[in-house]
Specification:
The chain is mainly alpha-helical and 155 residues long. Helices cover 66% and strands 0% of the residues. It is built from 6 helices and no strands.
Length: 155
């Protein structure tokens, strides 16, 4: 519960900013891609700069996680085929819905019910990815003659 209230406040503020900046409006994103709404690039640039500085600060201060108290760390993975496929699917989803997934909750909060369809697509994509990954894991285990280990087991 200690984390819930600050998370709620930050999430609500983020949703407010997305709505205020009209980033829940598909026409805004369409016009951004046609280079007619350049302020959206400034918003994205400021988000990238903030995230970059924030991660460097976390690394430099050896900050600890809020829930477990472990030192914040991350692993850099080299680009792979999965990244390319994921990027293409993300772009296809964005082009079909004419919307980035980030403002889904804000759209629903503003009673833009197309946000429900976009959310359904996001959850369907996650379910498909999980089903595909578990099928690959089972197939690899069967090929090697080992028993398949459920994801997350043994951690």
């Amino acid at each position: 519960m200690k984390i819930a209230l600050p998370s709620l406040i930050v999430g609500a503020a983020f949703g407010f900013v997305l709505g205020w900046a009209r980033l829940t409006n598909p026409d805004t994103l369409y016009n951004m891609l046609r280079l007619r709404e350049l302020y959206v690039f400034l918003i994205m640039g400021s988000a990238i700069a903030t995230a970059t500085l924030g991660t460097q600060l976390l690394k430099a201060t050896r900050a600890r996680t809020l829930l477990g108290g472990e030192i914040v760390t991350w692993i850099r993975y080299p680009a792979s085929r999965d990244h390319v496929i994921g990027s293409v699917l993300y772009g296809l989803g964005w082009s079909v819905t004419n919307m980035c997934p980030a403002p889904i909750a804000s759209m629903i909060g503003q009673r833009q019910w197309t946000g429900l369809f976009i959310a359904a697509g996001v959850f369907a994509g996650i379910a498909l990815r999980d089903a595909h990954k578990s099928r690959l894991t089972r197939g690899a285990a069967a090929a090697s003659g080992e028993a398949a280990v459920p994801e997350g087991a043994g951690l």
